[in-house]
Amino acid sequence: MRQNEPTHDGTSANGTNSTSRRRFMAASALVGAGAFGLGGPVGSVAADEHGGGMGNEEGMNGNGGMNGEFEDDVDILNYARTLEFLEAEFYRQGLDNLGCSGLLDAELLADFGHPIRTRVFDDLETIRDHEVTHAEVLGGTIEDLGGDPIEKPEFDFGTAVEDPDEFLATAAVLEDTGVGAYAGAAPSIQNAKLIPPALSIHSVEARHASFLRVLGGDIGFSAAFDEPLTREEVLKRASPFIVE
């Protein structure tokens, strides 16, 4: 997929862009411990087999340990809605600030050829639109359940929406966090009818994460299993960007 083809400005793209890739891996380390250190898939399956799986009011038990993290389904949906707002606003600000030419200045993209370089900005706009749609649908579902959807918080992403390499690295971290968040919260859902749409969002978030990982020079599917993140782990990663 990656080639030593000319970049958008006609210069040769040689080498491995080690500085940007180190930056990418450093950002990815923010979620590494949480994403792969919360018990294994065997523990999750065992919890499900003992009555703590999806659709069970008790939530996960054993190594998964999701009991008590959420008050009810509305709480779970508002939790997910907050993350979707965060991702949508991150992409909106970053893409608006950088524009197509600014994004293509990223060292991480320097040695990509067609079709990645010609489509990457449009693809990230599509991801942004997905996040907006997710937040809207979650809000409507909350209202259908008789709850109050949270309003969009105020966010501050600092230089992550100004520097193209930091933007791509942070996007990968946020997408990985979203995948872990859905995996961690889904077993606590009480209304079984909410599980299929929740899983459909989760699978799309995983596709986003895979795409961003590839842009960062990593493999998009580095493990056979995705591990759940606890609410505490997710909020630890999201809260630095949330002003109010």
From TrEMBL:
InterPro entries (alphabetical): Ferritin-like, Ferritin-like_SF, Pigment-catalase-like, TAT_signal
Gene3D superfamilies registered for this protein in UniProt: 1.20.1260.10
Source organism superkingdom: Archaea
PROSITE patterns associated with the record: TAT
Record's protein name: Ferritin-like domain protein
Organism: Halalkalicoccus paucihalophilus
